[in-house]
């Protein structure tokens, strides 16, 4: 079994420190699942320990490798999916910034992140999730500045981020020049963040909608060139999807650990559950699913770090395989825990809720399969395939969601 990441001494020591520290916060994680807030001291530790600046270039001018980020992510998710999401969302935002920024922007945002500011990655809209190219936010060229109007939803850390990377259609003299990315700073007039969403999974790090009404943005906040935003979003997701996979490995490992502990202790038919063949078969499947996920995540992380051809597909494969495996393992853990597994708010149920969310965010798992399918089979021949997203997706019809940013009730979701 693969228990440890193959990392250098310094990194291994750091991981040990993270492991030891997080073990002392168990009760706080349970509370944050109820309150949807991480304790301030824990957030403070995330900064002091460097967990929220890992994606910034270090002394050698390079950010932490994807492999290193994955190791950290797995460790955090073993304790709390939400805590791992805090680190993941920050790494995603900072990675996008650092990849696209020019020298002046890099220095500016690097200093800001070092000053403990969060960065949010705002791509999704109510009518553009999987079909990310359909986004409706407009970035209009007003000559001496850009003007951003539109709305985003389900944006992690939107309510507390200092910088929001917003993707929108670049309009110049009425013509659409593709998708651009701009940085909107907190407090800019016209920028509003709605109240946080009350989601069932990954609690402690809320998401919120963002509303932009003719927000004036200086040109120096444009990331990369006009029209390069979609490629930036996709390159960023290539780097963040292995992290979601690693987060799922941590969740799966936690569910497996709980099952093993319980099966060793719980007696049935005159012996421990662990001695019953049917139970052993289930646990074997769970252990192999976690292990296979870990290997696939490492494989993807290394491909991304080395910029290998096929990294996009490996990254998508790791994300869908590991999150699907975590969901199965979590459900099996609840089965093995029997009645003990059915209590609300306890670890097995929390892990299952977190794993479910991980199958959806950073691109639903069906989308990841389409990306892998495209890599294996080549693009589809259908006429609609000219409009692609995250690999190879037919353009979907508009509509589906009501205009409200957050569905008021279930009926809204059906609209
Ligand atoms: C906790 C959380 C945090 C998030 N954080 C962020 C963030 O920080 N920034 C951000 O930009 N977004 C964020 N999101 C949004 C997330 O990325 C989207 O929810 C996700 O991409 C899916 O989009 P959607 O919800 O619009 O689903 P839809 O696109 O409406 O799809 C719904 C479902 O339909 C199926 N489906 C869709 N298209 C296809 C297809 N072509 N083939 C087969 N099946 C298909 C899939 O099962 C999919 O789950 C977050 C979401 C959550 C839940």
In a nutshell, what does this entry contain?
The chain has 415 residues and is an alpha+beta fold.
The helix fraction, in percent, is 40-55%
First-last Cα distance: 47 Å
Q: What's the oligomerization state?
A: single chain
Number of strands: 10
Q: What portion of residues belong to β-strands? A: 5-15%
- Helix/strand-derived category reads alpha+beta
The CATH homologous superfamily name of the largest domain equals Butyryl-CoA Dehydrogenase, subunit A, domain 3
Order of helices and strands: HHHHHHEEEEEEEEHEEHHHHH
What is Rg?
Answer: 22 Å
Mean pLDDT: 90
Major pleated sheet: 8 strands, mixed
How would you describe the shape?
globular
Q: Which hetero ligands occur in this complex?
A: flavin-adenine dinucleotide
In the CATH hierarchy, what is the class of the largest domain? Mainly Alpha
What do these coordinates show?
- The protein has three domains: 9-114, Butyryl-Coa Dehydrogenase, subunit A, domain 1; 119-230, Beta Barrel (Butyryl-CoA Dehydrogenase, subunit A, domain 2); 231-386, Butyryl-CoA Dehydrogenase, subunit A, domain 3 (Up-down Bundle), CATH 1.20.140.10.
- The protein has twelve helices and ten strands.
- The protein has helices spanning 9-23, 26-35, 40-48, 66-79, 81-100, 103-114, 229-265, 277-305, 311-337, 347-360, 365-377, 410-414; strands spanning 119-122, 138-141, 146-156, 163-172, 175-185, 191-193, 207-217, 222-223, 267-268, 271-272.
- Helix 4 (66-79) runs antiparallel to helix 5 (81-100), helix 5 runs antiparallel to helix 7 (229-265) and helix 7 runs antiparallel to helix 10.
- Mean pLDDT is 90; it is low at 1-9, 383-404 and 406-415.
- Bound molecules: flavin-adenine dinucleotide.
- Flavin-adenine dinucleotide binds next to strand 1, strand 3 and helix 10.
């Amino acid at each position: 079994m693969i228990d440890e990441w193959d990392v250098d001494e310094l990194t291994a020591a750091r991981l040990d420190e993270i492991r030891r520290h997080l073990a002392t916060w168990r009760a706080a994680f349970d509370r944050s699942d109820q309150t949807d807030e991480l304790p301030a001291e824990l957030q403070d530790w995330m900064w002091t320990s460097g967990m929220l600046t890992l994606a910034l270039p270090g002394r050698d001018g390079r950010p932490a490798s994807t492999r290193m980020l994955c190791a950290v992510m797995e460790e955090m998710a073993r304790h709390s999916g939400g805590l791992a999401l805090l680190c993941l969302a920050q790494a995603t935002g900072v990675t996008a910034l650092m990849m696209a920024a020019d020298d002046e922007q890099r220095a500016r945002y690097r200093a800001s992140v070092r000053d403990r500011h969060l960065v949010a990655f705002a791509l999704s809209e109510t009518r553009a999730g999987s079909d990310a190219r359909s986004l409706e936010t407009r970035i209009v060229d007003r000559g001496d500045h850009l003007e951003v109007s539109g709305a985003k939803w389900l944006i992690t850390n939107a309510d507390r981020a200092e910088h929001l990377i917003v993707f929108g259609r670049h309009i110049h003299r009425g013509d659409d020049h593709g998708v651009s990315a701009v940085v909107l700073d907190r407090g800019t007039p016209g920028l509003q963040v709605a109240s946080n969403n009350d989601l069932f999974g990954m609690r402690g790090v809320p998401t919120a909608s963002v509303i932009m009404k003719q927000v004036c943005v200086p040109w120096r906040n444009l990331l990369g060139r006009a029209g390069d935003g979609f490629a930036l979003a996709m390159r960023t997701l290539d780097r963040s999807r292995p992290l979601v996979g690693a987060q799922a490995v941590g969740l799966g490992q936690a569910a497996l650990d709980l099952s093993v502990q319980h099966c060793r202790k719980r007696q049935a038919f005159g012996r421990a559950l662990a001695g019953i063949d049917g139970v052993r078969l289930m646990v074997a499947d769970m252990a192999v699913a976690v292990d296979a996920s870990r290997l696939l995540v490492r494989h993807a992380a290394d491909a991304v770090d080395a910029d290998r051809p096929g990294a996009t597909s490996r990254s998508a494969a790791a994300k869908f395989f590991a999150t699907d495996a975590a969901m199965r393992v979590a459900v099996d853990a609840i089965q093995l825990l029997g009645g003990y597994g059915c209590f609300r708010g306890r670890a097995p149920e929390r892990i299952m809720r977190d794993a479910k969310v991980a199958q959806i965010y950073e691109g639903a798992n069906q989308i990841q399969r389409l990306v892998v399918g495209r890599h294996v089979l080549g693009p589809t021949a259908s006429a609609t395939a000219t409009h692609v997203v995250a690999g190879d997706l037919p353009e979907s019809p508009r509509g589906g969601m009501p205009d409200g940013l957050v569905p008021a009730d279930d009926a809204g979701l059906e609209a």
